[in-house]
Structure formats: C-alpha cells, structure tokens
Amino acid sequence: MEIPLELLREGGTDLKIRKRTMILLAAAAMILGITGTYGYFSDIVAVTNRIALGDVDISLKEYEIVQGKEVVYTNPKAVLPGDVISKIPRITNHGEPCWVRARISYENDRRELESLSDENLMGMPYGWVKQGEYYYYTEILKKGETVTLFQELEIPSDWTEEHSLQRLQVDIQADAIQSANFQPDFSAMSPWGNQEIELCIHEENGEMISRKEKVKLSVEFNGSAHKLLAVPKDFFGNMGTAMPGDVFRDSVIVSNTTGNTAEIFFHTGLVCQRADRMDLLKKLQLTIAMNGKTIYSGDLQAEKLKTDISLGKFQSGEAGTMDFMVSVPKELNNAYALRDTAVKWYFTVYEDEKHTAEAPGKEGWNAPGSPGNKVLSQNSSSVKTGDESPILFMGLLTFLSALILVTVLIVKKRGKKQ
Questions:
Q1: For labelling alongside 293, which of 16, 32, 44, 264 has CA 20 to 30 A away?
Q2: Same domain, yes or no, for 151 and 249?
Q3: Is the dihedral of CA 137, 139, 143, 147 positive or negative?
Q4: What pLDDT shows up at residue 352?
Q5: Gap between the Cα atoms of 254 and 161, Å rounded
C-alpha cells in the first residue's frame, strides 16, 4: 500500500516536533532537578555599651562636743585666755577615692594684736603633714570615709586685757584630687605639684551605672539555637567608673559553634542622648583590634565604623579575639564629672550555603518544611541580606519553561494546519 507523500511529510514534521518537545522538556527538568537550592541565614545582635565618669566630691563640716555628745559647731563664742574650745573640722569623701588637703587661715579684727596660729591647734590625728601653706593627708580617702583635721583650739593663756573684745576667726578650706593616676610627693614643698584645683561641679540627676563582677565577653553564632548571641549586654561593664587618665582594656571572644562556615561583621551606632553626652563620646578614645590587627583607632563615637567591617570567616568550631581599649584623657576637667554616655555595637552573621537537591519525585527529595530538608529557611529573627539572585534565577527558569511550552503548542498547531 502506498503512503501519500504529503502524509509522510506531515508525519515527519510531527515527529520532529515531538522530539524537540521531549528534548526541551527534558532539559528544563534537568535544569530544575540539578539546580542547587539556595538557602541563606543572617542574624544580628546589638550591645549597648555605657561608660560613666566619676566625681571628686568632698564636704567639710564642723562639730563640737557639748555635754559629752558631738553636735554641729555653732558661732560665735565668748572665750577667755587659756580656754580650750571644742572645734572639730571633718572632711568626708562622697565621690571616687581621692587625696585631700586643707589650708587653715587666721583672722583678727585688731591687726596690731597677735592672732591665733597653728600652735593653738590640738588633737590633729596621725597622717597630716604641713608643706607650704597646706596640711596634706598622706592616706587615700575612700568613698564614704572621713578624716578629722583637728579637735580643739586653745586660747593663749598669756593674753591680757588688751586682747579683750577682739574678734577671732579661723577659716578652713579643703581641696581634693583624684587618687587614680596620681601620686603626690609628700617630701616636696608642693606635694600636688602645679595641679589646678577647680570648683566641684555636679550634674543633677546624673545616672550612675552599676557594675558587676568581671565577666567574660563573647559573641557566638550558636549551633544549638542557630542564633547570634552576645554576653553580656554591656561590653563596658567590667570598666567601673572612669577617671581622667584611666585606660581600660578588655576582649571579646568571637566564635562559631554551628556546623557551617559563617562570616561575622561588626559596626557601630549611636544612642539617642543629650548633646553633652555626645560630646563626651568625642573626648574618649577607642582602639579595636581583631586577632592582633587594628581595625579602628579614634574617638568612641566611631563614625568610621558605621558600615559593616568583616571580623573574618569562621569555620565550624573556630574562634577569634576582638581586643578593645578605651582611654580617658587626663585633661578632662570637672565639667565632665558624673557624665555618662553610651554607644551601640552591632554584630551580624551571614551563613550563605548552597545545597544540591534532587528533582521532585526522586528518592531522597524532601519538600520544603519536611524532615530531612537541607534548605536553611530564614526565621523571624533573621535579617534580609538583599541578595535576591536565587529568587530571580528560579523565576527566570519558570518563565523559560512556560515559554518553551507555549512555543511547542504554537509550533504543533502550525504543523497540524500544514
């Protein structure tokens, strides 16, 4: 039986179309089947670091013994030659540990007559030395401690009637200087040197920052929680109260305890606070090094660290050390006393893995969310990296597959018409 030539051509064309269709569909299936399923995970953690400057704060009050009890001293008093007056000047430290000194001056409204002098002081405790016009206390006065300058004044017994009706006055001025980063030379004529003594200025409603015992600082990409963890929430917590000239050093252990390689980044941010506290950030100096390599040196405001800087890629179980140093300038004056300021440090982790998945229907393939799925999903605590190339790639594949099917249908329809 003869087969018409037109049927052979039609059958041949249809056969070619079918072959091409099968090849294109197979190629699309292979592309979809062997394409690596792209999974990524990112997380961020912030620590708010606070630093507070201490204060040199003393008070001077006078007391006297009345009927065996110590009470606040009162003026004026009528005295006679040879009288011993109970007068107890006492210095109390309300701030950071400090050195104290006192200057005692004597006045008399009748200049032609002699006045009182240091020889009339009685009951001065051990620890005071006279150098120049000051008495220096040779022990550090800690916060809450007090020291008595003297206990009594003796009116000279040889004064006569001509000394009557004169007005005597004893004035006492007390000064203090921080003990941190300063050591007086009590053998010198001026044990404190040329230190400028400023008026004590206190900030109202200042926030004093409580400190805990020294703790280890760490940033860990935790394998169990699969989350970036920072301990504690204040990396300056080990510093204590800062004083001019102080230098604080500490270290943060950065580690990865997950099963995958991860890259950890660091940047800083500012805490919304008053202008005077922002000014303090510019005065304090900061140096940061990662595994011995300096990554920043400048003021604590750290404008240059507002963008991410890599601390390195960490293999599973790998750790590194981030060292930092905060310096308080010696020239900071009393205007900065009791000020505190804060700065935020951010740590970000990027776990970027590509896993090969088999095509649906094949043995070993698991749907997203089913047990055994190797794709890392982005949880609610994650931060989007901005890399959408995997999504675009999959969308492109879907579009190409649809285009192939439409093309096949059009060609097939045209073949039938022929």
A1: 44
A2: no
A3: negative
A4: 66
A5: 83
Q: 332 is in which domain, residue-wise?
A: 42-53+210-354
* pLDDT under 50: residue ranges of the chain: 1-11, 32-38, 202-212, 354-391, 417-418
On whether both 304 and 221 belong to a single domain, the answer is yes
Residue 343 · residue 296 · CB < 8 Å: no
Residue with tokens 């204060």: 55
Q: What is the pLDDT of residue 172?
A: 92
Same domain for 46 and 88?
no
Tally of domains within the chain:
3
Residue 18 lies in a domain: no
Q: Are residues 48 and 65 in the same domain?
A: no
Tell me how far apart the alpha carbons of residues 10 and 306 are, in angstroms, rounded to a whole number.
70
Place of tokens 């109202």: 204
CATH number of the domain at 303, please: 2.60.120
- Distances from the Cα of 170 to the Cα of 143, 159, 316, angstroms: 27, 18, 74
293 phi, psi to nearest 5 deg: -105, 120
Query: What CATH number did the domain enclosing 129 receive?
Result: 2.60.40
User: How long, in residues, is the chain?
Assistant: 418
Q: What is the predicted pLDDT for the residue at 27?
A: 57
pLDDT for the residue numbered 303: 86
13 found inside a domain: no
- Domain membership of residue 257 (yes or no) is yes
Contacts of the segment 4-12: beta carbons below 8 A, 24+ positions apart: 10/415, 10/418
For residues 174 and 252, membership in a common domain is answered with no
ω into 76 cis (within 30 of 0):
yes
pLDDT tens digits, 68-88:
999 999 887 788 888 899 999
- Boundary (domain end) residue, out of 305, 336, 354: 354
> Which residue type is seen at 315?
Q
